[in-house]
Amino acid sequence: MGPEDLEKVLRLLPRGESTGEILVGLDTRDDAAVFMLDEETALVHTLDFFTPIVDDAYFFGQIAAANAMSDIYAMGGTPISAMNIVCFPCSLDMNLLVRILQGGLDKIHEAGAVLLGGHTVDDEEPKYGLAVTGRVDPERILTCTGAEPGDLLLLTKPLGTGILATALKGDFLSEAEMEEAVKGMAGLNASASQAALGAGAHACTDLTGFGLLGHILNMLPERGLACEVHTSRLPIYPRVIEMAEMGMIPAGAHKNRDFIGERVVLSEQVDEITIDLINDPQTSGGLLVALPPEGLKAFSELLDNANEWAQIGSFGENAEPIIRVLP
Ligand code: CO
Ligand code: CO
Ligand code: CO
Q1: Closest ligand (CA of 32)
Q2: I want to staple 211 with a disulfide (CB 3.0 to 4.6 A). Which of 63, 123, 233, 256 is the partner?
Q3: What's the CA-to-centroid distance between 144 and ligand 2, angstroms?
């Protein structure tokens, strides 16, 4: 669902439980919840599932699992166990489902977690994902708010997966031609999470469906902080700009743009394609990290070199939560 529709529904429901054990619950903008077991251990809970974003069943499984575990990493946690969530048409070749689940299982194992079970539903369109439990030190939880004026804004994977997936669906691009993005989406945010923790990050969130601007907005409190984004510094997957120029913009990008509304100030030098890119809904995107400048060296050393990361902006003092988008 888009951010606007989701907000309409959640507004009509109670704000959720509050007990001392709930360290992060429904009342924050984080996608994962944190429940304290004792002073040294808290559990991180999250779930995510979606329809195939690529044709290759094995890669789809990997991407869906990496995406679901991403919310654990965004909180500074480590996945420990997972359950499969499966919707699949009984009329389809069951070998496809085997490949999807194998992809998911391989990712769960890569993360050092175990698969405990799952649930399947007969459905017209396949959907796959995970419910994941992770472990986190209650003293070292990363949340999406907490950035301070002067912090740098880092992004740990390139942008453009929504645009590429739209081009793939329209047969304007083959899966081989978006190989880098497929591998990127299947990549875990494990090392990025460790780097953020080790370098002393003030805040962290993962970049998914609300797009770059939507997720940055989630990092800004009601008052006191603004963010500046330098679009020339954005890491972008190959072929994205070309496909965007051909009009391969997912509907979600427009919804995201409407939702942001007046909370973004766009420089006149930023072109339409770039505006689409910064609103493009991402699948299994990188982490957005708010880092004090003195942590930058440690961050780059801790992040393994498979990550294509960039410093894309910075946070500053401001009465209103505004994102300034610069060339
Ligand atoms: Co999600
Ligand atoms: Co998330
Ligand atoms: Co069941």
Answers
A1: 2
A2: 256
A3: 9
Give the number of whichever ligand sits closest to the CA of residue 131.
Answer: 1
- Of the listed ligands, the closest to the CA of 83 is 3
Domains of the chain, first to last = 16-140 (3.30.1330.10), 152-326 (3.90.650.10)
| H/E element, 43 | strand 42-50
Each residue's pLDDT, cut to its tens digit, for the chain (327 residues) gives 777 788 888 888 887 667 778 887 776 777 888 888 898 999 999 999 999 999 999 999 999 999 999 999 999 999 999 999 999 999 999 999 999 999 999 999 999 999 999 999 999 999 999 999 999 999 999 999 999 999 999 999 999 999 999 999 999 999 999 999 999 999 999 999 999 999 999 999 999 999 999 999 999 988 899 999 999 999 999 999 999 999 999 999 999 999 988 899 999 999 999 999 999 999 999 999 999 999 999 999 999 876 789 999 999 999 999 999 999
The environment of the single-atom ion ligand 1, i.e. residues with CB closer than 5 A, is 48
From the CA of 46, how far away is ligand 1's center (Å)? 8
Helix or strand (DSSP H, E) at 265: strand 264-266
Do the Cβ atoms of 33 and 44 come closer than 8 Å? yes
Tell which residue, 225, 201, 209, 226, has the closest CA to residue 288: 201
